[in-house]
Design a protein that fits this description.
The protein is built from 14 helices and 18 strands. By secondary structure, the chain is of the alpha/beta class. Helix 2 runs parallel beside helix 3, helix 10 packs parallel to helix 11 and helix 11 packs across helix 12.
Length: 427
């Protein structure tokens, strides 16, 4: 890697949900930065002693004007804390109000234009011809999507410019228009993201927007002289007990991952009816006493919606079961931004210390405070990962307690591939 002039100062991350904040933050942790995700009411000074601080505005489902206002407030807090570079994490399929969010961040941070790409090739998300694609299928016109909630003009950096030269990127049609503020860049492969990151670093852009995919390649340029995270205390990795998985999303990918867990012999799945979470607590307790992996799955009728009240009750029940375990709990796994936020609120968590990445886009953090302080939590976006992603996350947490492959029985199908791909927890 050709290193640019050494940057200094705090790096800020603003995301519109907690799982996005965590997976973007994990890319900077991988680069050696001490990285925290702050969960509070937006009041007071941010903590010191961190190289990277990520904030979640929880505005994925908010009105665009509210999302923009929350973004400006988050950027203001980061600037007051000394942030000199800002990464705005957007959804890899451009859900929410991405144009308004990025525009608000640019105005609050005082930059004339922003390079944006939601591409995340390792998760099957790419951008070609300005179209956002998922698994090779075009799902949304990226430029139109950005323009829906932004007043500023939107430009486009085509793939041919990215693969040609830095000069070609600089003179691409979008950059020749004086009033362009948001520049959507194509990206199909990791090499394309690397080129965009190098361009951003070489031109000293102080604000970049994208998914965790682009963050992975921006982070080494922005954080290569930061504290070595490998020197941090890792006593969280020495915990004993079972793993508790909380699934509150009905995302089809997460449901496929849940079905995969149901097929495992040493996994107990407890279906929790929405609005009746307390009735499931005895079953969760018994399962945690007997099984290394326990899954609490929120059950909602097909014709009903997951409600905030139902999710909050589900989270309180899961946290109550976790607290009862004390030190005899290996860790938590959550899936879906709303579920993860409800879990953290129920536990009274205000700060997450990002410590590792289990699979691409699926990080592990340690709850730094609250009723489950020092307990690791793996957070997964609802649509991320292959069908065995949750299983791999559980094995990752349990890894130093597993003496041989027979202690947790998975289906024999694809066993060789699973053994090869599943990462081992760093201890």
């Amino acid at each position: 890697m050709r290193r640019m002039r050494s940057p200094s100062g705090l790096v800020g991350i603003v995301a519109d949900d907690i799982t996005g904040a965590c997976d973007a933050a994990a890319q900077f942790q991988r680069a050696g930065a001490r990285t925290a995700v702050v969960l509070d009411d937006g009041d007071g000074a941010l903590p010191t002693g961190w190289d990277v601080i990520a904030l979640s505005t929880e505005s994925r489902r908010a009105l665009p004007t509210i999302a923009a206002a929350r973004t400006r407030a988050a950027v203001g807090r980061l600037r007051d804390a000394g942030a000199e570079r800002l990464y705005v994490k957007v959804d890899s399929t451009l859900r929410g109000a991405p144009g308004g969010i990025v525009e608000a961040a640019a105005m609050a941070f005082g930059v004339p234009y922003v390079l944006i790409t939601p591409a995340f090739p390792e998760q099957g998300r790419t951008v070609l011809g300005g179209w956002v694609r998922r698994d090779d299928t075009a799902i949304v016109d990226g430029m139109a999507r950005l323009a829906e909630t932004a007043i500023a003009s939107v430009g486009h950096i085509p793939l041919r410019a990215i693969r040609s030269s830095m000069t070609a990127i600089a003179i691409s049609p979008g950059l020749l228009v004086d009033n362009v503020a948001l520049l959507l860049a194509d990206a199909e492969r990791d090499d394309d993201l690397w080129t965009l990151a190098e361009y951003a670093a070489s031109t000293e852009l102080s604000l970049v927007a994208g998914s965790a995919g682009l963050a992975r390649y921006i982070a080494p340029f922005w954080c290569w002289e930061t504290t070595n995270a490998d020197d941090e205390d890792e006593t969280w990795a020495d915990r004993d007990g079972p793993v508790l998985v909380a699934i509150g999303t009905r995302n089809p990918m997460t449901q496929a991952q849940l079905a995969y867990l149901r097929a495992a012999d040493d996994v107990c799945v407890v279906d929790v009816a929405q609005g009746e979470a307390d009735a499931a607590l005895p079953a969760i307790r018994r399962a945690l006493d007997r099984t290394p992996v326990v899954v609490a799955a929120l059950a909602v009728p097909p014709d009903a919606a997951v409600t905030d009240a139902g999710l909050d009750g589900f989270a309180r029940m899961a946290i109550a079961a976790a607290i009862e375990r004390g030190d005899d709990l290996r860790g938590l796994v959550t899936t879906g931004g709303a579920t993860t936020l409800a879990i953290c609120k129920a536990a009274g968590v205000r700060l997450l210390n990002v410590v590792d990445e289990v699979l691409t886009g699926i990080p592990c953090s340690v709850m730094a405070d609250g009723q489950l302080a020092d307990v690791p939590i793996i957070t997964k976006s609802g649509g991320f990962g292959q069908e065995d992603a949750l299983a791999v996350a559980c094995v990752w947490l349990l890894s130093d307690a597993i003496d041989d492959a027979d202690e947790i029985e998975w289906d024999d199908e694809d066993e060789d591939e699973r053994d090869e791909d599943a990462p081992r927890r760093r201890t």
